[in-house]
Amino acid sequence: MSCVAAKTDTHEGAVQIELKMFMKFKRFLPEGSADGKATISLPAGATFKDLLHHIDMPVVEDKIIVINGISHKQSDKVNALSLQQGDTVAIFPPIAGG
Amino acid sequence: MNSWPGKLLRVDLTKGTWAVEDIDPELARAYIGGRGLGTKILCDEIDPQVDPLSPENKLIFMTGPLTGTGAPASARYMVITKSPLTGAIASSNSGGYFPAELRYAGFNAIIFEGKSKEPVSLYIKNGEVELRPTKHLWGKTTHETEDIIKGEIEDPWEAQETRIACIGPAGEKLGRIACIINDKHRAAGRSGVGAVMGSKKLKAVVVRGTQGIQAADFDLFKKSVRSAMQKLGSGPVTSEGLPAYGTAILVNIINECGILPTNNFQQGMFDRAGKISGESIAENILTRNKGCFACSIACARMTTIEDEKYKGHGEGPEYETVELMGADCGIDDLAPITKANYLCNEYGMDTISAACTVATAMELYEKGYIPADDAGMDLSFGNGEALVKLIEQMGVRKGLGKVAADGAYVLADTYGHPELFMGVKKQEIPAYDPRGVQGMGLTYATSNRGACHVRGYTIANEVLGVHEKLDPLITEGKAATVKVFQDLTALVDSSGLCLFVTLTPGFGFGDMQAMLKGATGFTYTVQEVTEASERIWNLERIFNLKAGFTKADDTLPKRLLEEPLPEGGPKGQVCRLDEMLPEYYELRGWDAEGVPTKEKLDKLGLS
Amino acid sequence: MKKILVDYTKCTGCRQCETACSAAHYEGETNPQKSRIRIFLDEAHDTFHPVISGPFTNAECTSKNVVNIGGTEYDECTVCRASCPGRPWFWEPETNIALKCDFCGDPPDPQCVAICAHGALQLIDDLGLGRARSQAKKKTAG
Description:
The structure holds three protein chains of three kinds. By secondary structure, chain A is α+β, with helices and mostly antiparallel strands. Chain A has three helices and five strands. Chain A starts with a helix and ends in a 6-residue tail after the last strand. Chain B is an alpha+beta fold. Helix content of chain B is 40%, strand content 14%. Chain B has 26 helices and 18 strands. In chain B, helix 2 runs parallel beside helix 23 (526-547). The radius of gyration of chain B is 22 Å and the shape is globular. Chain C is an alpha+beta fold. Chain C has one domain (2-141). Chain C is 18% helix and 23% strand. Chain C has helices at residues 16-25, 111-115, 132-141, and strands at 2-6, 29-30, 37-42, 47-52, 66-69, 72-75, 121-125. Chain C starts with a strand and ends with a helix. Chains in contact: A-B, B-C. At the B-C interface, helix 5, strand 13, helix 8 and strand 14 of B face helix 1 and strand 2 of C. Strand 13 of chain B pairs antiparallel with strand 2 (29-30) of chain C, so a sheet runs across the interface.
């Protein structure tokens, strides 16, 4: 996958975020990732949408996004959120139950 | 053939007699069936002040107009009585095959009155009724009971199609968290309905029938069912997530959101949540998924534990069970959790209440409030062996189980620290911490049967965004959300469908109206069924007010109102109930004390 | 020509096929006992077996075979399609008429297949003896 190189990209101005993928979305993680997680390096000022492009995940794919412990549904507002150094992003397929 | 409202069976256990009655079509129309109609009958026939475990209390089994019809997830029945756990109204819901078979056997409802001297069981076959002395079943687990009853039926084919609801030792010993189990693994779980059955010395209800259920307007019924099926089949939750991972699919996301009750609600995140998640269940112990009657979702988990110490086979764990027996007890090992789940089914105990009781015992023990002699074991958080051992003791009322069998409130109160009881109206809180999801706090505080997640599952919108995505941390607008969820739930619970149909985007009052109209022939409009749902909620409220509950009972444990969550997304949050409750009363048409106004009662036909 | 392919490994035991079949054949009466398809639950193996009613017989078998499905042995009665006096399945209650699948719909649109949400029942082209399985495999692979 093309993003493998980016995983170790530590150029100046980059932000590192922790990405957690669940269930069928694990396939979007960089190769070699374990436990459904990876550290992803993005240029400073990158948005959530940039992260999706980075991991080749369709922007419109229905999903639940948890950024730093706060849940969001796929939307333009979330896409525009800029990610900060040390952010945790978890992405789930649509789920419910209880 | 007139399938709805049809017949009810009234059984007088004191005299050992029974009578068949027609259900009043006017009442059936106004209260739909199931939870609504059962509540109406209970309110008309008992004094809300009655001692729940006395012969004066009644136990009602009530199906809905859609139960057994083949509508999606039309597997459910409701058990309605006055709860020995809360003192409020109890209405516990269960699926499996038993509820549909009860209708095929000729009855839409059973009312049990009085109390038998000796243990008895009720047998129904195609309208033929028999009360049999079943002393030999007393003391047996639910699984043993079912096997013995089926073994006594001569024809093996008939035995296979006979369906049984029964209590285990917990219900016999009047444990206030005892449930009624049907088809071995499905539970009318909450509020101690099993203890009421035990107090009446009723061990089992055995049904078998070959009578059909006639849809009043088959064309409309079929069309509306296919349309609802289409929604369920295309909704990702009901067609992918739940079949593959069951309800425990929620463990990871609820943990990520910082609202996964951990160590008796002391924290909202569990660092080993992945080990008890739906994915972990699927990878490690799942044998297959299973559907209740006419359900395309098939969220039930059939599981096997190979570990010699906890060896077993059965159904579960569900989300609530695995979360509360897991994270809330600090346990990350599926083997003891699943074993404890099996034991709860066999002894006939509600897994939510049982798990919370163990978590409460653990906190009491760690803080030194339960003397080591009383505990008789190391009750530290994280001890899976202790979980299984205490559940066993609760099932048979031995050791610490003597007290714990009556639930977490009685346990915490007995040891002088009721503030460590995490519940509302003496019923234990399920597996979402309301400090990080404000609407759920209001749901718990105002639920008519005490703390409950299936009386207004706002998690669907506040966290999961099923119908629309709401911010879980704000209180604005939550009163309205809670009210809509509570009302829709009252309608679904009364219809005979499973609440999970509402987890499909686009499913709502309109689908319910069409299916109900097709099945019953009542010319329901969307407005009429919406109003019925509100009528049901208000009637339950009135029962509770008459039973002695007040506004002061619409609250949460101090911990959830005052101690901020220590970490995660909702770090620093408490549940701001006071910002939502007055607005909620107003939306409900209740006065500032939470009492329905005369205008409201007039409008709903309840005055 | 069409056939119904039964894949018991996908059956979750929900019995919605029983409700759809009976309602379709009895003008809106849902009654598993009047269904031409029944689900046999094998508790010992956690499996469910959809059985579609076949021919009427007026005598029980005298020799009972053991059937091996997927490495598990079953009493033949549990998977047999016959309306037989030894088993209460596929006999209409009250009248005791033997029920038989009529492959309902024209063109065929069996209601059991239409309602099955898990793919345990599929309508496939009849390509002749022994070819259904390979066709199904191809479908799964595609």
